[in-house]
Design goal:
The chain is of the alpha/beta class. Helices cover 25% and strands 25% of the residues. Helix 1 packs parallel to helix 6 and helix 5 packs antiparallel against helix 7. The radius of gyration is 23 Å and the shape is elongated. It starts with a strand and ends in a 10-residue tail after the last helix.
């Protein structure tokens, strides 16, 4: 039996936490980021991992500063053999990494060394990658650069959003995690160094990245629409109204390219309840679902019926 302290905050971390709780090992504590206000009333809501921990009577620590000696002492007092990190959201200092006798391992949502960093799922979808995966690695001082224990790959379907892939990878990560913990306990775990020369990086997604540039090719915009869900969402504007694009498709096979002298990016082609937008290089993106600011998500047919947008109108950035 391994005594485990679990570091994780969002819903992505929950399947791994639940798998450890259900195993023969003991989760002696959960470390989560502090609760945040949510909703219209801005009420403090417990983080997803804290909710699970409280349900099972597991102590929860929510430090504002993880380098302070008081927190480090709390960690020592837990007497954990191993630390498991899943989307905790902070870089752990060396003094913390040194406390568990077996060190710390991380469930990372990419095939390392590709997409080291805070947003591996979003970056893979935005890039239009055909596959992604999960890697179990040792936590080291350098970001996501530690040796790996295990990895598995999954395809990224053409219409899948980052939210869709997050659910898939969260489950996959939980499945990969337990065998590695068992191997560490038995002293048979094999660590494989990463090839740093192949490393790519996945910086945190910013809200500004949601603004669509219609000068880009349709496929690139389609991948951005998928990749920025559920946050910060891809958006455009028309007549001063922000429009969130919820679902799109690259030009349908049953449609020919726009026959017009006006192929400037952002031009709307609307016919029979369907909508295409001219993009860079003369490509077209079909809009399937969208959400005007302050309203519900609707199909393109509903949107066109309600707003009466004429063929030839234009989206801005």
């Amino acid at each position: 039996m391994v005594r485990i302290v679990f570091f994780g905050t969002p819903a992505f971390a929950v399947p791994s936490l639940e798998a450890l709780i259900a195993s023969s090992h003991t989760v002696v504590g959960v470390v989560s980021q502090p609760d945040r206000p949510k909703g219209r009333g801005q009420q403090l809501q417990p983080t997803p991992t804290r909710q699970v921990a409280l349900l099972h009577g597991i102590p929860v620590l929510q430090p504002t500063k993880i380098r302070e000696e008081s927190f480090l002492q709390q960690m020592r007092d837990l007497g954990a053999d191993l630390g498991v990190v899943v989307a905790f959201g902070r870089i752990l200092p060396d003094a913390l990494l040194a406390i568990p006798r077996l060190g710390m391992i991380n469930v990372h949502a990419s095939i390392l060394p590709f997409y080291r960093g805070a947003a591996p799922i979003q970056r893979a979808v935005i890039a239009g990658d055909a596959e992604t995966g999960v890697t179990i690695m040792r936590v080291a001082s350098e970001l996501d650069a530690g040796p790996t224990f295990s990895m598995a790959r999954v395809p990224i379907p053409p219409q899948a959003t980052s939210g869709d892939m997050e659910s898939v990878l969260a489950t996959l990560g939980a499945q990969l995690l337990l065998p590695v913990v068992n191997d560490l306990e038995a002293g048979r775990a094999i660590e494989t160094p990463q090839d740093d020369a192949l490393a790519t990086f996945a910086p945190k997604v910013t809200k500004h990245e949601g603004i669509i540039d219609w000068r880009q090719p349709a496929e690139r915009i389609h991948n951005r629409v998928r990749g920025l869900q559920p946050w910060p969402l891809a958006s455009t504007s028309i007549t001063g109204t922000r429009i969130v694009l919820r679902k799109s498709a690259v030009k349908s096979p049953d449609r020919e390219t726009v026959r017009s002298e006006d192929l400037s990016p952002g031009r709307i082609v609307a016919t029979q309840g369907r909508m295409w937008v001219v993009c860079g290089d003369g490509t077209e993106l079909e809009i399937l679902e969208l959400q005007p600011e302050g309203r519900r998500t609707m199909t393109t047919r509903e949107f066109l019926a309600g707003r009466g947008i004429a063929d030839g109108a234009r989206f801005g950035s």
